[in-house]
Structure formats: structure tokens, C-alpha cells
Amino acid sequence: MRYKKFIIALILIIGLIFAFYVSFPSNVAQVPMVENRIAVLDLSGIIAYSESPLTLWGETLTPDEVSKMVKQVEDDPATKAVLLKINSPGGSAAASEEIYQIIENLAKKKTVVAYLTEYGASGGYYIALPAKEIIANPSVLTGSIGAVNVIVNFEGLFKKLGIKAYIFKSNEFKDIGSPYRNITSKEIEVLQSIIDNVYHQFQAKVIEHRGVKISYDEVFSGRPFTGVQAKSVGLVDDVGTFEHALNVTKKLAGLPLDTPYYVVEKPKPSLLDLLLGGTRGRLKLSYEVLLMWPLPADLEVADVIYLLKTNG
């Protein structure tokens, strides 16, 4: 009897989840098919891969999601231009680079403009660089050109608790960044070289796309700017509202001001994701270079350069 009740309850739960799933609006707003239109891509969240622990700090934006969104507008011959509506403080350097490449390829096929809303900092700014023009909300936080990593070290805590960690390794740097012991001067040089290399790649991209527009000393200081300040140092082309950015997109694409637009949101979760609660598995240890501002509050550690993270 209990078994039958369990089966009935399970069927009801699955039915409710399925009804909830199919009731989701499509990630593309329904608009009448017209000869020309503009796609608005909603790029919001901390930039990460789906398995990244950065997902613990709120909404994320993954390369896979962006790829699927871009594929939709690439395949639509009526979509003549794309407006990237960006709200991101950045995140993983690797994921930011992958999204940058996706947007760069899109910009070769269609007119692309970026609009920075609340955040467009660090990796959030990085993914806007391929756009023909960058428009910013006057109060957006943008800039923060650079890279950061944080190492969390537990050696002092372990000593107080009487815990010892024995490490067996094949060579000197195999356990670089280990949280179980203090970092060495040689390891600091290696890790700093990694940060410098990623930063120089970021710097080169900014110079490639913004060229003589930027004020080098201010832009490459690592500081964030408001939208108004960003315009004065050349990081953005103009400030204004979403409607202004939309009109700029139409103008650059040679479209009339009454051209309609539709919004492409991030893909909705699959029914399997809803049933199983996502794809995260067992926690594991890894390290990640960040193009991100600000860092999560509990990771704001001074004078350290690596982030100890768990990812699933």
C-alpha cells in the first residue's frame, strides 16, 4: 500500500515539474517575423563554467549558454544587428576568453553593440570589447582591467588544531598553491608570472579594440570606473539608456528607428536539470585565475594572488 502511494506521489511530482517546465516562456521573445530586426542578448551573471564554484555567488553566465544564444541569432537572416545587454562583474578568465571569442566571431557576421547596465567590469568588460561601439549606463561600474587570484593558507590553523598534512610530489612545483603549507618565494614568482601573463593578454585586447581612445595610465591601473568616468578615459563610446543603445545599434546597422527587436535570454534548464537539481557532482579542489570585480566578500584577502576553490 505504501509502495503504491509512493508511486502515485512520484508521478504527481514529476507531472508538476513537467507542467512547470513547459510553462516557462521561451528564451526568445515572440515577435512577428519581419524583414529586419535586432536581437538583444541578455548577458547577465558571474562568468564561469557551469561546474565552477563561482556559481555559489549567484547567477552565472557560461560560454555554453552564450554559444547557444549566439547560434540563434546567427541562423536568423532577419536579424541584422545584435545588442549585448551586459550585467556582469566578470569571473573566470578562461570562461571570459571563450565568451570573448564567441562574440568576436559574431561581430564578423553582424553589427554588434554592447550596452553595460549595472556591472560591466573586468571579465564583463572583456566580453564587450569585440562590439563596434560600447554604450554604458552613466552609473555602471566598469573597467577593472586586470587579473587576480587568491591563495587561502590553512597552515597556521592546522598547527593550532594539531593537524598535519604529508605531501608526496614528483617535483618542486607540483603542489604549487597548496593550502596546507606556506608559499615559497619561487612559487610567488611563478604564480605572479601567470597573473602578469593573463593581464597582458587582457591589456593587449583592450589596446586592439580601443586603441588611441584610451587614457593608458588610468585604464591600466586596475581601478573600476562609473560609466561617465569610463567615457572620459575612453573605455566606452557613450553613456545613456538602453533605448539610446538600441538606437545606436540601429544607426550603425543602417536600420530605421522603428526596427523591432526581440530579447534572447539564457537557455532555460532542462527537465532533467529540474528533476536532478543540476549537474554538480562531488566537490574537488582546483585553482582559477579571475577577471573579476569585486571579489566575493569572503575572499577579499590582501597581498595574495590565488583563489582556492572547490568545484563540482
Please trace the helix and strand order, writing H or E for each element. Answer: HEEEHEEHEHEEHHHEHEHEHEEE
Characterize the overall form.
globular
CATH class category label: Alpha Beta
Rg result: 23 Å
The residue-averaged pLDDT reads 83
By CATH, the topology is 2-enoyl-CoA Hydratase, Chain A, domain 1
Q: What's the number of helices? A: 10
Number of domains: 1
Quaternary structure state of the chains depicted: single chain
Overview of the structural elements:
This protein is an alpha/beta fold and 312 residues long. It has helices spanning 2-22, 63-74, 93-107, 123-126, 155-161, 185-210, 216-219, 227-232, 242-252, 271-276; strands at residues 37-44, 46-47, 60-61, 79-88, 90-92, 111-121, 133-136, 141-143, 224-226, 238-239, 261-264, 284-288, 290-292, 307-311. It has one domain (25-311): 2-enoyl-CoA Hydratase, Chain A, domain 1, CATH 3.90.226.10. The strands form four sheets. Strands 1, 4, 6, 7, 8, 9, 10 and 11 form an eight-stranded mixed beta sheet that branches. Strands 2-3 form a two-stranded parallel sheet. Helix 2 (63-74) packs parallel to helix 3 (93-107). The two termini are 39 Å apart. The model is unreliable at 21-26, 277-286 and 299-312 (pLDDT under 50).
Keywords for this entry:
10 helices, 2-enoyl-CoA Hydratase, Chain A, domain 1, 36% helix, 8-stranded mixed beta sheet, 312 residues, two-stranded parallel ribbon, alpha/beta
